[in-house]
Amino acid sequence: MQxxxxxxxxxxxxxxxxxxxxxxxxxxxxxxxxxxxxxLDPWNIIQSVERLLRSIWDMGFDAVVWLWRYFxxxxxxxxxxxxxxxxxxxxx
Length: 92
What we know:
Elements: H1 2-13, H2 17-37, H3 45-90
C-alpha cells in the first residue's frame, strides 16, 4: 500500500517530491527576480500592478512623442526635397 500511494503521489507531482520541491523553489526565485525587475512588490501586489501599468502607459506615450519629434525633424528636410523633385519631374 505504501508503494502504491508513493507512486500516486509521484504521478500527481510529476516526479519525486524532493525533485519537484527543488524545481519549484528555483522557478519561484527566477519568477521573483523577473517580477522584481518589472517593479512588482509581493506585499503590495495591487499597487505594484497599477504602477507597472501606469509606467507602461507613460512609456508608450513617451515613445509616440519621441517618434513624432524625429518625424518632424526629418520632414523639415524630406518633404520639401520630395516636393521639388515631384514638381521637377512633372515639368518634363
